[in-house]
Amino acid sequence: MNDTVNPEEIVSELLKKVKFPGYSRDIVSFGMLKGVYLDDGKLVVKIVMNDVEDGNAQQIKEDVRYVLEKESGYDNIQLDIENKTKEVKQDQPLDAKQISDPQPLKGIKKIIAISSGKGGVGKSTVAVNLACLAAKAGKSVGIFDADIHGPSLPTLLGINQHPEATEDGMIPVDKHGVRSMSIGFIVEKGQPLIWRGPMLNKALEQICEGTKWGELDYLFVDLPPGTGDVQLSLAQKYKVDGAIIVTTPQNLALEDVRRGTMMFKQTNVPVLGIVENMSYYQCPNCNDLSHPFGEGGGGREAESIGVPLLGKLPLDPQTLVLADQGTPIVIAEPDSDTTMNYLTIWQTIERML
Ligand SMILES: Nc1ncnc2c1ncn2[C@@H]1O[C@H](COP(=O)(O)OP(=O)(O)O)[C@@H](O)[C@H]1O
Ligand SMILES: [Mg+2]
User: Fold this and answer.
1) Atom of ligand 1 nearest to the CA of 125
2) What's the domain range around 166?
3) Ligand 2 centroid from CA 108, angstroms
4) Ion ligand 2 — residues with CB under 5 Å?
5) Are residues 76 and 117 in the same domain?
6) Cβ of 121 below 6 Å from ligand 1
7) CB 292 within 8 A of CB 311
8) Which of 113, 217, 239, 262 is the most buried (most CB within 10 A)?
């Protein structure tokens, strides 16, 4: 082996070929490669995983060994692989540096990410209503719509204007006491977004950082659905204080919740819990409850993943009508059952933060 070549560089390059199972992202970008050195001609590679599920951990181990044995040029290889399962489960202080070095955003006390496995489960609706409740309770609140696939903040909050641009940044649009910024303010409605990959991440960062949020108690971030690049880079770039996962009770949606939870764990973002949306329908005439999307899925899933079920929200035609009109239900109908459910959820979240 050519000793003038840095083994760390070789290994780092090679291990970029090893994807985290089920993700397009590689294990190096997840921060798992912790050390590479030579010990008397033997290549020692140290990998640390953070509560990775056994099957995935085994897969990563095999892939790493395969790539290194095949392509590193070293015959004698020692793999030191650690999976810090128990430490994380016991809720010991998390080593945030392990993945990257997420930064708080200036002036912002807490960042709350709202995520979901799939689109259309009500992620944005939940984000907007929680933000409005917090604002009504006197907090200074912002909401950043980072959902590039379907920025819905302008519709949900009934905003038709562009944010004002000043020399030192954009001024978020204030509606219902919430300062909001959306990629939808910047890209014309119906226009396909041409940014991809790192460009897209950069654009989102610039929009978020280029916004004059002022002092905020809470910034809600409406993430795109799924566990792609945007979610990961936001979680790695900013210190996210908690993630809320919105789902419907269907099994299909729940499979994605599992992946979402996994992603946040991996980036050291505490998952505050699951909100089960469209959980039940109450007939306005006879008050009978029915479960059009199945019953209790969110609770079962929350239990199996070990995160709290923050609450359930009804399938409520008013939620939809009001959302389309740009007035969140917690503002338009402050005394409704749905608003009460939101309130309970928000109080739980606030306690956890
Ligand atoms: N609990 C609910 N009851 C009835 N309609 C809802 C409910 N939650 C969301 N919706 C409607 O479902 C659609 C998708 O919601 P949205 O919040 O945009 O989802 P996402 O952000 O997950 O794509 C919207 O038309 C919204 O008004
Ligand atoms: Mg949305």
Assistant:
1) 17
2) 108-352
3) 23
4) 124, 147, 152
5) no
6) yes
7) no
8) 113
Question: Does one domain contain both 128 and 72?
Answer: no
pTM, whole model, 2 decimals?
Answer: 0.73
Ranking 33-42, 101-110, 169-178, 304-313 by mean pLDDT, the lowest is 101-110
Q: What is the domain-level CATH number for residue 13? A: 3.30.300.130
**Do 294 and 249 touch, CB atoms closer than 8 A?**
yes
Q: What is the DSSP string of 7-53?
A: HHHHHHHHHTT-BPTTSSSBTTTTT-EEEEEEETTEEEEEEEESS--
Give the mean pLDDT of the chain: 85
1, part of any domain = no
135 plus 230 within the same structural domain: yes
What is the Cα–Cα distance from 44 to 30, expressed in whole angstroms?
Answer: 19
Same domain, 129 and 232: yes
In whole angstroms, give the CA distance from residue 258 to residue 271.
Answer: 11
pLDDT of 236 higher than 50: yes
* 95 assigned to some structural domain: no
Ligand 1 pocket, 278 CB below 6 A? yes
Per residue in 245-259, pLDDT (tens digit) is: 998 887 666 677 778
115 and 70 housed in the same domain: no
| Mean pLDDT within 5-21 | 90
CA of 110 relative to ligand 2 center, distance in Å? 21
